[in-house]
Design goal:
By secondary structure, the protein is an alpha+beta fold. The chain contains 29 helices and 28 strands. Strands 17, 18, 19, 20, 21, 22 and 23 form a seven-stranded mixed β-sheet that branches. Strands 1, 2, 3, 4, 5 and 6 form a six-stranded antiparallel β-sheet that branches. The longest helix is centred in the first third of the chain and has 78 residues. About 3% of the residues have low confidence. The chain binds adenosine-5'-diphosphate (ADP).
C-alpha cells in the first residue's frame, strides 16, 4: 500500500465519521426535542388531572355534605315525632328529593323499611342484612356511612347508600335514615368537564367504585390490578400511569386525591393516546423531517463520494501518466517543497529513492546533486547551493537550458513559474536528439563538402574537357579553310558542329552546377533593358528566318529604358526561352511580349511572355519541365538537340532575380512561357544601340578570333557579334584554355576577358607573350568590366595591344579588332577601342544636373567647337606651350561631354608632348577626330530634342 493509498483510506474513514456525526447530530436533536416534548406533555397532563381531582374532591365533598344534610334533617324531623312524620309528604316539598336518582328512606331498628319518598312497595322490605344497616345498628357513635354500590333488589340498578343511625332520647337505636343515590348522581358533575376519552372515578378505600364517568358495568367488584389504593394509602395525592386504566381499560395517566373526611378517593385519568396525540403528530413530523435530512445528507455524502471517486480516478490516471511519461517532472510549492515528483526524475538525475518522497525540498535534491559531483564547475560547490537554487531552482528567467550530466546524458531542463509562487520543472533526455543533431550537422557538412566537391569536380572536368575540345573545334575550323571535296567538308563540318554542341553542353553543366551551388553572383549594373531584350531577340532572327518563322517583339511603353540589374543573365534567360520557342516551332510565329509594372518604390517588375505555335508540351510533362535534364521525350530531344538544362538554368536565374517562371501549353498548338524578374529603376540614359546598325566597317578580311570569356552569355553575345562581323570565332572559358588554344591554333586576334577562373586574362596574356615566334605576338584585346576600368596600364604592361570595356558595343568591338589586326601585333592606341561618344557619360551628367542641364552643357560645347578648332589649328602651327594648353583643354572638355575617343587621344598627345616624345605626337589628326566627334555629339543632341518634343 502506497502512502497515497494510505492517505486515501484515511480520508475515506474521516469522511464516513463526519457523515455519521452529522446524522447523529440531526437525530440527537430530534430525539432531544421529542423527549422534552414528551416530558412536558406528561407534566402538563399530570398537572391538568391533578387540578381536576381537586375540583372533583371539592364537588364530591359538597355533594356528600348536602346528602348528609338531608339525612340529618329527615332524622331530626323523624326523631321529634316518629309517629307523625311522613317522609313522602316531606319530600314532596323538596324538589331535589324527587329526583329519581335520589331515594330517602327510614328503616326501623329491626331493619324493616318504614317509609320512603318513593312509592311504597306492596310487601315489606327487610334490609336488616344490608351492610349499611348493620354498620349503623352496630355502631357506637353517630357517623355517616357510605356503602358500596348495591344492586337494587327492586330497581335492579346500582345505588350507593348513605346512612346515619337514628338515636332515641335516651340514646337508644331507633333505626336508620338511608339516602340511596344512583352512582350517576355523584358522577354527573363530570358531564360538564371536558375529559375526552378520559375518566373520573370516586372509589372507596375499600376498593369499590362509588361513581365513575364513563360508568362501569360491575360496580359490585373491587378494583383489580390498580396501584391506586396502595398509592393513596401512602400519599394523599399523586399520579401514575397505567397501561389498562381503571375505568376505560386503556393506557392512561391518572391523578388521585384521598378525601380527608371520607374514606374515598377521587381519581381522574386521561387516555395516553389522547394525551400524546399532538406529541405523536410532532414525533411523526420530526421523524419525517429527520428522514428527509438523513436522505439529504446521504445524498450529499454520495455525491461528494462520487466526486471524490472521480477525483481519485483522475488522480490515479494522472499518477499513472506522470509515472509512465518519458519526461521527468517536479512540482514545487512556493516554499520549495516537492509537491509532485515522478519516477523518471529519479532515473534521469540518478536520485536515491528517499529524495523521491514527499516532503523532500528542492534544496535537498540540489544539495545531494552537489555532494555527488553533479555540477562539476568550480562555482557550483556546496557553498553556493543557495545560489544554485536561486539561479536554477525557481528562476524562470532561464526558462530552458541544456545540461550534460557527468554520465554524458544531455538534459533539457524547463522551468515554469506558477501563479502561486511555486514552479514546475521538466527534465527531458535529449541525448539522442543531440546526437542526431550532431550527426545531421556532420551529414550536412559532408553533403556541403560533397556539393563543393561536386562543383569543383564539375569545374575541373569541364575545364579538362573543354581544353581538348577547344583544340578539336579550333582545328576543325582550320581544316574548314582548306580545300576539300564536298564529302570531306561535310565530315569536318560535323566535327566542328558536334564540338560546338559538346562545348555548349559542358558550359551549360558548369553554369548549372555553379547556380545550384549558389556560387553565381548577379551583376548590379545600370543597363538599357529595351536594347538588351532587342539584342537577344535579334540574335535569333537568323535562326527564325531560316525556319520561315515570324519573330515579333513588343515592348510596352511602360518598360523603362534603363534599369539596374544583370543584363547578361536576362539575355541568357531570353535566349534560352526564345531559342526553345524557335527550336520547337516548325511553322507560324514566335511572339515576345514585354511589359512592366511598378512593384515597390524604385523597383520595376518586368514580365516577359514568349509564345510560340510549336509542337506544345504534354500536360504530364509540365510539372517536371523546369527540373534539370528534363526533356519531354528522347526522340524529340534527338530531333531538336539540347541538354535539358536550359529551363532549369532559366528557372534558377529567374528565382535569383526575385521572380518566377511558368508555362502554359497545348500539344500541337503551342506553348507560352512567362517569367517575371525584379529590377531596380535607374536614372534615364540614352541607349547606344542605334550605333550597332549604323556603323559597320567592312572587315579587312575574315579573321580567326579566339574569345576567352568565362560568362556564358557574354561569350554567346560576343561570339554572335564577331560572327556578324564576318569573322570566325572559337570560344574558351578561362585563361588556361586560351593559352592552350593559342599554342595549338594560329589566331589573328584574341579577345581576352580580364577576370576569369583558373587563370585570369592578364596572366594568360603574359604567358602568350612569353611564347616564342608568331604565337607570342598574337594580337590581344583586353575585355574589361566596368569594375575594372582604370586597369588600362595593367593591360598594356601585360602585353595587350588594346582593350575595350564590357559590354562592348558592336562598333567599338569591330573597331578594336580591325585596329589590332591591322597593326599586326603592334600595340595600338587604346583610343581606337573607345567610342566616339559614350552616352553613359551624358546620362551620368543628366543624373547630376538634370536632362535639361546636360543638354545645355552639350549645346554650349557645340557652340564653342568652331572657336576651339580655330585655336587648335593656330596652336598646331605655333606648337610649344600653346599646343600643350589647347590639347589639355580639349582632353578635359571633350571627356566631360562623353567624347571619349577624342578626350583620350588629346590626353595621350598631351602626355607625349609633355614627355617631348615627338614620335608619339599624333596631334595633326586631332582636327579630323574633333570634327567626327562633334558630328556625333550634334546627332545625339538632335535626337534628344526630338524625344523632348515628343516626335518619335
Ligand atoms: P533543351 O536543351 O533540351 O532544350 P530545356 O531545358 O531548354 O532543354 O528544355 C527542356 C525540354 O522542354 C525540351 O527538351 C523540350 O522537350 C521542352 N520544351 C522547352 N521549350 C519548349 C517549347 N517552346 N515548345 C515545346 N517544348 C519545349
Amino acid at each position: 500500500m502506497t502512502a497515497w493509498h494510505r492517505r486515501r483510506a484515511g480520508r475515506f474513514a474521516g469522511r464516513a465519521a463526519l457523515l455519521a456525526s452529522v446524522l447523529a447530530l440531526i437525530w440527537g436533536a430530534i430525539w432531544l426535542q421529542l423527549a422534552q416534548e414528551r416530558i412536558a406533555t406528561e407534566r402538563d397532563v399530570r398537572q391538568e388531572t391533578g387540578n381536576l381531582t381537586l375540583a372533583f374532591e371539592e364537588n364530591i365533598i359538597r355533594s356528600i355534605a348536602a346528602i348528609d344534610q338531608v339525612i340529618l334533617i329527615v332524622r331530626d324531623a323523624y326523631a321529634r315525632d316518629p309517629a307523625q312524620f311522613n317522609l313522602r309528604g316531606w319530600a314532596r316539598d323538596r324538589a331535589f328529593i324527587n329526583d329519581q336518582t335520589f331515594q330517602i328512606a327510614l328503616v326501623d331498628s329491626s331493619g324493616m323499611l318504614l317509609q320512603s319518598n318513593l312509592e311504597q312497595a306492596a310487601e315489606r322490605v327487610d334490609v336488616s342484612d344490608r351492610e349499611h344497616f348493620r354498620v349503623q345498628a352496630d355502631a357506637s357513635r353517630d357517623a355517616l356511612f357510605i356503602s358500596r354500590p348495591v344492586l337494587g333488589r327492586v330497581s335492579n340498578r346500582y345505588s350507593v347508600q348513605f346512612t346515619r343511625r337514628i338515636i332515641g332520647p335516651d340514646g337508644e337505636f331507633l333505626g336508620v335514615v338511608v339516602a340511596s343515590l344512583d352512582p350517576f348522581y355523584l358522577g354527573r358533575f363530570y358531564e360538564s368537564l371536558r375529559i375526552g376519552h378520559g375518566f373520573v372515578m370516586l372509589v372507596g378505600l375499600d376498593g369499590y367504585v362509588r361513581a365513575s364517568r364513563p360508568a362501569i358495568e360491575h360496580m359490585d367488584l373491587p378494583l383489580a390490578a390498580s396501584p391506586l389504593l396502595e398509592l393513596a394509602e401512602r400519599d394523599a395525592q399523586g399520579s401514575y400511569r397505567i397501561d389498562a386504566g381503571e375505568v376505560t381499560g386503556q393506557a392512561s395517566f391518572v391523578s388521585y386525591r384521598r378525601l380527608t373526611e371520607y374514606p374515598l378517593i377521587v381519581a381522574v385519568g386521561f387516555g395516553v393516546d389522547e394525551v400524546f396525540a399532538a406529541y405523536r403528530l410532532h414525533r411523526f413530523q420530526y421523524v419525517v423531517a429527520g428522514i428527509g435530512m438523513t436522505a439529504l445528507v446521504l445524498c450529499i455524502g454520495v455525491l461528494l463520494d462520487s466526486h471524490r471517486r472521480r477525483l481519485a480516478k483522475y488522480q490515479e490516471e494522472l499518477t499513472a501518466t506522470l509515472e509512465n511519461m518519458s519526461q521527468g517532472i517536479v512540482m514545487v510549492d512556493p516554499d520549495r517543497r516537492v509537491a509532485v515528483i515522478n519516477r523518471r526524475v529519479g532515473e534521469l538525475l540518478g536520485l536515491p529513492p528517499r529524495l523521491l518522497q514527499e516532503n523532500t525540498t528542492l534544496d535537498d535534491i540540489l544539495r545531494w546533486q552537489v555532494e555527488h559531483g553533479e555540477f562539476a564547475s568550480p562555482g557550483a560547490g556546496p557553498d553556493s547551493v543557495q545560489d544554485l537554487v536561486a539561479r536554477g531552482g525557481l528562476d524562470a528567467s532561464v526558462p530552458v537550458y541544456e545540461r550534460t550530466r557527468p554520465n554524458g546524458i544531455v538534459l533539457e531542463i524547463r522551468t515554469a513559474l506558477l501563479p502561486n509562487g511555486g514552479a514546475v520543472r521538466t527534465y527531458t533526455d535529449i541525448t539522442g536528439r543531440k546526437r542526431n543533431e550532431q550527426d545531421l550537422a556532420a551529414a550536412r557538412d559532408a553533403a556541403e563538402s560533397g556539393a563543393r566537391a561536386r562543383s569543383q569536380f564539375l569545374a575541373v572536368m569541364s575545364h579538362e574537357i573543354r581544353t581538348p575540345l577547344n583544340g578539336i573545334i579550333g582545328a576543325a575550323g582550320l581544316l574548314m579553310d582548306r580545300r576539300f571535296d564536298a564529302e570531306e567538308f561535310h565530315y569536318v563540318q560535323i566535327i566542328r558542329q558536334s564540338g560546338d554542341h559538346l562545348l555548349q553542353l559542358v558550359n551549360d553543366i558548369l553554369d548549372f552546377s555553379r547556380l545550384d551551388a549558389s556560387c553565381v553572383e548577379l551583376d548590379e549594373v545600370p543597363f538599357d533593358v529595351r536594347a538588351t531584350i532587342a539584342g537577344a531577340v535579334d540574335m535569333l532572327t537568323t535562326a527564325a528566318q531560316q525556319k520561315g518563322l515570324d519573330l515579333a517583339l513588343t515592348i510596352a511603353d511602360d518598360v523603362p529604358p534603363r534599369v539596374v540589374g544583370d543584363p547578361g543573365r536576362l539575355r541568357q534567360i531570353l535566349l534560352n526561352l526564345t531559342g526553345n520557342a524557335v527550336k520547337f516551332t516548325e511553322r507560324g510565329a514566335v511572339r515576345i511580349d514585354v511589359s512592366a509594372a511598378g512593384d515597390a518604390p524604385h523597383r520595376v517588375r518586368l514580365t516577359v511572355a514568349i509564345g510560340d505555335t510549336g509542337i506544345g508540351i504534354p500536360a504530364e510533362a509540365l510539372p517536371h519541365l523546369f527540373d534539370e535534364f528534363s526533356q519531354v521525350d528522347g526522340s524529340i530531344s534527338r530531333r531538336f538537340g539540347g541538354s535539358g538544362l536550359g529551363l532549369a538554368i532559366s528557372r534558377r536565374l529567374v528565382e535569383r532575380m526575385g521572380g518566377s517562371v511558368s508555362v502554359q501549353s497545348v500539344v500541337g498548338e503551342g506553348s507560352t512561357f512567362r517569367f517575371d524578374i525584379l529590377l531596380k529603376e535607374a536614372p534615364m540614359e540614352v541607349s547606344e544601340s542605334g550605333e550597332e546598325a549604323t556603323v559597320a566597317n567592312p572587315p579587312l578580311s575574315r579573321l580567326r578570333i579566339l574569345l576567352a570569356e568565362d560568362n556564358g552569355t557574354n561569350r554567346l553575345v560576343a561570339s554572335r557579334m564577331i560572327e556578324r562581323m564576318g569573322h570566325r570565332v572559337d570560344a574558351v572559358a578561362d585563361g588556361t584554355e586560351a593559352v592552350q588554344a593559342v599554342r595549338s591554333i594560329p589566331y589573328d586576334v584574341v579577345l581576352m576577358d580580364l577576370m576569369m577562373p583558373e587563370m585570369d586574362g592578364l596572366t594568360a596574356t603574359k604567358l602568350i607573350r612569353a611564347e616564342p615566334g608568331p604565337v607570342g605576338r598574337t594580337p590581344i584585346i583586353g575585355l574589361t568590366a566596368n569594375a575594372e576600368q582604370g586597369r588600362e596600364a595593367a593591360c598594356r604592361d601585360a602585353g595587350m595591344n588594346a582593350f575595350v570595356s564590357k559590354p562592348a558595343p558592336f562598333e567599338q568591338l569591330a573597331a578594336a579588332i580591325q585596329a589590332v589586326a591591322a597593326a599586326g601585333g603592334q600595340p595600338v592606341a587604346a583610343a581606337c577601342a573607345r567610342p566616339l561618344l559614350d552616352a553613359r557619360v551624358l546620362g551620368l551628367l543628366a543624373e547630376d544636373i538634370g536632362q535639361d542641364g546636360a543638354l545645355d552643357v552639350v549645346r554650349l560645347f557645340l557652340t564653342e567647337v568652331p572657336r576651339m578648332i580655330d585655336r587648335l589649328e593656330q596652336a598646331l602651327v605655333a606648337r610649344g606651350s600653346a599646343l600643350l594648353r589647347e590639347v589639355h583643354t580639349l582632353a578635359s572638355a571633350s571627356r566631360s561631354v562623353g567624347l571619349l575617343r577624342l578626350g583620350h587621344e588629346a590626353a595621350e598627345i598631351e602626355e607625349a608632348l609633355a614627355d617631348g616624345d615627338a614620335a608619339a605626337d599624333r596631334s595633326g589628326s586631332l582636327p579630323d577626330l574633333m570634327q567626327a566627334s562633334v558630328r556625333r555629339l550634334a546627332e545625339w543632341e538632335a535626337a534628344q530634342e526630338e524625344v523632348a518634343s515628343g516626335v518619335t
